[in-house]
Structure formats: structure tokens, C-alpha cells
Amino acid sequence: MKTGTVTDSFEKLIFAAIAITGIVSGICKGSNQCAIAHKFYEECRSFFYENTLNFLHGELVAVGLLVRLSYFGSDCAYMINELTQLKLPKCLSELNIPTDAVEKFADELCNSSAINDTSDISRKRMLDTLEIMLELLYKEFHITEETDYSRLRPSDYPILTDLYKLMTRELEHYEEKAATGLVVYCKETLRELCLGLHGICTGAESVYFNGYTNIPNAKHIDFGVKDMLSTNQSLSNAMYFNILSFMSHKFLTDGDTNICCDELHELLKNRIAISYLLSFIKRGRKRGSNVILASQNVSDFFLPEIVEYTKPLLSIPTHRFLFYPGSCDTEEYKRILGVSDSEYRVIQNPNRGHCLYSCGNERYHLHVIAPKYKKALFGTAGGA
């Protein structure tokens, strides 16, 4: 390059750069190749343009590659040595970027698609790897398809700490196992899986998931979900899935089961919960199962963003006890619930115990009178 002469070595170098880049791009289908390194370059140009103005694209990406190697736990010594020999920058300070900018770089990288990859391919790869880990785990506990599960106690099953120990052990001995040619998952995918599951396996959220079941083999089981309402969306989704998948098995597989969901308005913004409840209502009858839904705030059902999901919850049930609806859109209420003007007048005022009972095309004005012994059960905290 210094002499301006095109040599054979120079042509091979250019060809290798183009060919290898094309291969990598093809494997990655044109996206996220060396994504962390290039995201690092973007951050340099976006937040520290003046500082890095005199550096070439390749020089910035080279430092980004060191970040990528560190993220995946790889040895950076060889590349640092190569960059040193070529007199190229190896860290932020050599790029004229203040070292206190590390936290800013980290935040941007963690929130970018370079690390937080939610693509279908990445998700499928992680699920496949998790399935392999679970197969290995149950094999360690001598649980197979031929196992008589009726003889197993809760403590005979593995819990999430067992899964996490297995994954970290597989990660530690990855190179050794990969040398045999029998490993079909990637080390990076397993590392991401360990990182993603750390919270529920051994971290702060493990209190909700890591343990042997305490659900008794009883006729009546009560799930209190009050504390779940204040948790973040991802955590509450996982917990709802845990509870509702258990209920689904009892309700639709075993059958002859009744589910009662009180304070339903508290669950309306959770699509997972609503989807399960709709499935229960539609499919439970043929399994001899029933659903009882109770809610106070009817207006919450009519919110524009969820009304399409909640409407069937009000229209499908065979038996409906409609009490005073409170402050809501009267016309919307009558339209969705199929209530006439004369029927609505029965419940438009807050008369305790009075309700409109509908069963198919039949309508009845009911006055519910609680016996004294039942009144005593309510106490004085608003129910009496």
C-alpha cells in the first residue's frame, strides 16, 4: 500500500476480506454478524463523534471485537497482541474516549439487538438448547417416559437449581465434550441461557420458582395472586403461566373441576390469564368442568385496548348475575351484555342484594337475602 503496487499478496488479502465477510453475512442471513462489535462502532460515532473522528471504521470495530470476545468469555490475549503489533487502539482511552463512559456503552449494548436478540432464530436456538439440558437433567434423576410417576414424591423431581448446576457444568466442560463431536448446541447459546435463567434459578426471583411443589392433593386449592399484581410484566406472566397451566391440566384433562376467579378485573391486562380463562369457558363444558367469574369494576372490561378480549368473558357464560354496575358507559354495558332498557332499570340503582339473573333468553329479578349465619361470616370489613 505504501508503494502503491498491487501485489499477489495484496490481491489475496482483499479477496479474503470480501469472501469471508460474504460467508459470515450469508450464515447470519445478513443481520447481526459481529453485532456487538458494530454496535460499539455505532455508539462511538453517535456519542463520541469528535473524539473518534480520526479513527477508521475498522479500528473502532477492532476494539468492539475485544468487547465481543469479553462478553462471550473468550481469551482476548491473542487479539490484543495482534493489535499491539499493528499499533492499533485496544481500549477506550486510546480512542480518546473517557473511561467513565464504560457504563454508557454497557447500557446501550445491553438494550440493543446485538445482545438482547429476540429474533425467532435466536429464540428457537435457545429453546432447543434448553430442551437438551432438560433431557440430560431428567436422565440424571432417572426419570424417563417409562417412569411410574404415581410413585414419585415432589422431592424426587429436579428443581431449577439442579438445572442451573447442570448447565454451568456443561458450559465449563464444553470444549472437552465438543471435541467428541457429540455436542449440537453452541457455547454462546448455552452461556446466554445460563445468564437468562440465573434470576429464576438462583437469583432474586428464585423464591417464586425454585423449589418443590407445595400444592396439596386436595379437593380445594386456593391460589392467592395479590402480590403478583405489583411485579414486573415478565415475572407475572411466568407465574400466571405456572398457575394456569396446572389449572388447565386439572380442568381440561382430568375434568369435573370447578374454577372460581374472584376480582377478575385485576387480571384483565394480563393477556395470558385472559387467554386461559377464555379456553376454560369454551372447552370446559365437554369435560364436565365449570368456571365462575366474579368482578366489581365492570367498566374495566370496556377499555378500548382490551374490550375485544374481554367481551367473550361477559357474553359466553350461561348463567349471569348482574348487580349494580356502578359508573360505566350505560349504552356500552347494555350492548355488550345484551340487556334491555327495562332490564337495566332493575339494577341501575345500588340496592343491596338485588340483581338481574339471566339464563339463556330468560331474565329474572332476584333479591338475594343472606341468612344470619352467613352474614356473620362476612364480618364488618365492608361485606356486612
**Helical residue percent?**
40-55%
Strand residue content: 5-15%
Shape by Cα distribution: elongated
Give the terminus-to-terminus CA distance. 91 Å
Find the structural class using helix and strand composition: mainly alpha
Q: Regarding CATH, which class of the domain at 120-209? A: Mainly Alpha
User: What gyration radius follows from the Cα positions, in whole Å?
Assistant: 30 Å
Number of strands: 5
Order of helices and strands: HHHHHHHHHHHHEHEHEHHEEH
**If you consult CATH, what is the topology of the domain at 120-209?**
Helicase, Ruva Protein, domain 3
Average pLDDT metric = 85
Major sheet details: 3 strands, antiparallel
**Second-tier CATH architecture of the domain at 120-209:** Orthogonal Bundle
- Poorly predicted regions: none
Task: Describe the structure in your own words.
With 384 residues, this protein is mainly α. Among the domains are: 34-110, no CATH class; 120-209, Helicase, Ruva Protein, domain 3; 318-384, no CATH class. Helices cover 51% and strands 6% of the residues. The chain has 17 helices and 5 strands. The chain has helices spanning 8-27, 35-47, 49-52, 57-71, 77-85, 102-110, 120-140, 160-172, 174-178, 187-201, 206-209, 233-254, 271-283, 307-315, 330-337, 341-347, 372-378; strands at 258-261, 290-293, 319-322, 354-359, 362-367. A 3-stranded antiparallel sheet has the order 3-4-5, with helices on one face. A two-stranded parallel ribbon has the order 1-2. Helix 13 links the parallel strand 1 and strand 2. Helix 7 (120-140) packs across helix 8 (160-172) and helix 8 (160-172) packs antiparallel against helix 10 (187-201). The protein is elongated. 13% of the residues are buried. The model has no long low-confidence stretch (mean pLDDT 85).
